[in-house]
Write a sequence for this structure.
């Protein structure tokens, strides 16, 4: 049964602010970034509206990294203990990397710095997050390793999906054009390694452009132009 | 009774407002709010790890506000560093902002808000709260609504909104009463209400009523400023 005041007040992909009413009526459901206030669905974040049937969601465009299970992140060794390492993954808390979770077998009491030293960069995967936001990461999966050489740039974590693109279309395009190895961590850290500085700069430029214009439609074509032009000038 | 305001404004007219978001690159969120000659800038850092650890709350995040006036913000040089007044304002700012924030997602972390007044002509705590609430939204912190703040008062027997320095220091016809308020337009709650001077109950109710209307105007400006950051690029 439909009542009169059940309607949606925003367009898909519209930019909304906290406190803005997105829809009236109990027919709609709140998801991430929204909440229900009596008869209204209200945004609780600054971001883009996503309408999926009756479910409303706000994808935020800003903010620091919130760890999620199964995320592949780029971390930096910040500290060591008896049984593992503490890794800075750019979120509010350091992640734990236990000696059980590395590929090598490590004896009890061994010098952990021989395996991963301070400031080493790792590609790691988040396995478990507790209620109090303790984060456990592992090195035991395909593609996880210590990073050597190259450079790191940081982007807003909420824009990582845009940098990767649909089925990795955007990132593979950047890789092809810049001839660089690129790893994008879900925490917004991007590792770039190329044969020469010019290649790395081109890849950096493209990624920075995506971050700047992540909410613009038809971004892939714009980045393609940028990359092709950069190639010509090189 | 006062015939005219010192700067010729109507009694319920605000000074010229200017709001801008994203002014500090290195912060997670930042904003500037200018009302007349009063300029406040706010920067939000975090959620990040809270030290010392005994301040941590394992159930939800902690909000930490620091209000400060620059030495050159007032006509006679202000001694740098915190003082009795700024400690008080930091505290009331925190309490004005907390009701809209949902910090349950950030256990044991802190969200730091730094408010700097770079030019002062009355209403600095209100400008600070307004800027801070925009900066928090920009930092991607979930919040129910934006908080808008303005000062109302009674000067020379007249109820008016947004007092300037000359009005605040007014001595004739019973002097001046300054009432800074912060308001959540979504649910109509006041989160800050301070009073310095003398006022009748009926007059206070009337003052709050015009303050409410003024806050709604400020709220619109805040929303506009937040949306504007994504419009600049094509």
């Amino acid at each position: 049964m439909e009542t009169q005041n059940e309607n949606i007040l925003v367009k898909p992909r519209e930019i909304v602010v906290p406190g803005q009413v997105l829809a009236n009526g109990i027919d709609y459901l709140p998801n991430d970034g929204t909440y229900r206030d009596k008869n209204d669905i209200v945004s609780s974040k600054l971001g883009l509206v996503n309408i999926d049937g009756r479910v409303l969601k706000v994808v935020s465009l800003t903010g620091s990294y919130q760890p999620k299970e199964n995320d592949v992140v780029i971390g930096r060794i910040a500290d060591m203990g008896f049984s593992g390492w503490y890794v800075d993954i750019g979120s509010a808390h350091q992640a734990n990397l236990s000696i059980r979770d590395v590929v090598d077998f490590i004896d009890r009491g061994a010098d952990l710095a021989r395996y991963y030293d301070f400031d080493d960069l790792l590609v790691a995967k988040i396995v478990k997050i507790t209620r109090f936001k303790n984060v456990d990461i592992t090195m035991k999966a395909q593609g996880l390793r210590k990073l050597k050489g190259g450079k790191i740039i940081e982007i807003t974590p909420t824009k990582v999906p845009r940098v990767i693109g649909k089925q990795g279309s955007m990132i593979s395009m950047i890789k092809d054009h810049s001839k660089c190895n690129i790893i994008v961590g879900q925490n917004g850290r991007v590792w770039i390694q190329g044969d020469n500085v010019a290649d790395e700069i081109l890849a950096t430029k493209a990624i920075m452009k995506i971050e700047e214009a992540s909410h613009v439609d038809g971004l892939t074509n714009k980045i393609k132009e940028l990359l092709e032009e950069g190639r010509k000038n090189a | 009774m006062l015939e005219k305001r010192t700067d010729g404004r109507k009694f319920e007219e605000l000074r010229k407002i200017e709001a801008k978001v994203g002014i500090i690159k290195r912060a997670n969120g930042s904003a500037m709010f200018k009302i007349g000659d009063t300029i406040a800038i706010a920067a939000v850092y975090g959620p990040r790890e809270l030290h010392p650890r005994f301040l941590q709350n394992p159930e939800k995040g902690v909000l930490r506000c620091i209000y400060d006036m620059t030495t050159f913000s007032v006509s006679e040089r202000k001694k740098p560093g915190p003082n009795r007044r700024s400690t008080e304002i930091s505290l009331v700012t925190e309490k004005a902002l907390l009701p809209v924030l949902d910090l349950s997602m950030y256990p044991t972390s802190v969200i730091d808000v730094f408010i700097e007044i770079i030019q002062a002509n009355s209403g600095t705590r209100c400008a600070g709260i307004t800027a801070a609430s925009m900066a928090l939204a920009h930092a991607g912190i979930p919040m129910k609504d934006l908080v808008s703040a303005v000062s109302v008062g009674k000067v020379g027997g007249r109820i008016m909104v947004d007092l300037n320095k000359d009005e605040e220091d007014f001595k004739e016809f019973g002097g001046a009463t300054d009432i800074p308020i912060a308001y959540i337009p979504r649910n109509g709650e006041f989160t800050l209400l301070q009073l310095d001077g003398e006022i009748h109950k009926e007059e206070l109710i009337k003052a709050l009523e015009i303050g409410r209307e003024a806050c709604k105007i400020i709220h619109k400006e805040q929303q506009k400023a937040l949306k504007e950051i994504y419009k600049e690029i094509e």
User: Anything to note?
Assistant: The interface with chain B takes residues 15, 17-20, 33, 35, 37, 42, 44-47, 60-64, 66, 91-94, 131-133, 158, 212-213, 215-216 of chain A (CB under 8 Å). The mean pLDDT of chain A is 88. Chain A is about 20% helix and 30% strand. The longest strand of chain A covers residues 72-80.
